[in-house]
Amino acid sequence: MIDIAIVGAGPAGYSAAITARKRDKSVVVIGQHTGWLSRAHSISNYPGLPDISGADLLNAMRDQAVALGAQTRPGVVHQIVSMGSSFALSLGGDFIEAKHIILCTGAKQPRLLPGESELLGRGVSYCGTCDGMFYRGKRVAVIAQGPEAVSEANFLAGLCSEVVCFGAHDDALDSKIVVSDKKPEAILGEGSVSGLKASGEDLPFDGIFIFREAAALSSLLPGLEMDGAFIRVDRQMRTNLPGVFAAGDCTGLPLQVAKAVGEGCIAAISAAAN
Q1: Are residues 183 and 246 both part of a single domain?
Q2: CA-CA to 217 of 20 to 30 Å: which in 22, 119, 125, 224?
Q3: Do 51 and 144 belong to one domain?
């Protein structure tokens, strides 16, 4: 079991990892460099490192955390479940168990489709390798908005009678997969999924698999208290859920690297003390 699982590979996450390792806690940082900072040509207001690119800053932070013994895992955490004294984090077909969680998911949260949250677990899934067996011989849709979509769609193609992929044009897709240019607008069904509305057309499906760069907080960790679009925390970066902390842009303004680094440090100190 890991002492602290950090969801998000940005300045807050790496700062938390560095601080936790200095307190001899086992740490895993889950995520990849896909946010706005990784694309920033120049960061000119971070103390001591004038005119460094966002990618170089992230790489330096990651390298420092890894040198101290932090683990890193690419991928998307689809759900976090409390097990009493620990938490289980679902990453596709894999699970990580951790004593504490620090959420460093950034400010950008995906917009859910109408019907998505209501039908989650009733035909809507975020993990093909987890739930694909339930759809053997059935017709499913894949909504591709993240890096895992191609491999997950290919896995489903080996089980389902038909896989229709929305949003991915990739040579690595299995030849059996149907690629659609229609825009997903809503998930249809009462009690369970019956189809997908795309570009104004109702299309029948038995299941809908959605792959994004990040999971919406409402589905990632049910019961998490929000303050508008941001996670509500106290001065120790504690959320309303025991054992769960948050830091960085996901806790609110200002959206600054220095603020994220400071909050990551505080969150790790708080988590390590528990």
Answers
A1: no
A2: 22
A3: no
Instruction: Report CA torsion sign: 98, 22, 249, 228.
Output: positive
Query: Hunting for tokens 């290919």 — which residue is that?
Result: 154
Query: Is 115 part of any domain?
Result: no
d(CA 93, CA 73): 14
Domain assignment of residue 263, yes or no? yes
Residues 219 and 105 grouped into a single domain: yes
DSSP summary character for residue 112: P
| Residue-number span of the structural domain to which 187 is assigned | 124-212
Determine the Cα–Cα distance for residues 34 and 26; give it in Å rounded to an integer: 25
Q: Which two structure tokens, joined as six digits, stand for 264?
A: 């990551």
Length of the chain: 274
Q: Which residue type sits at 159?
A: L
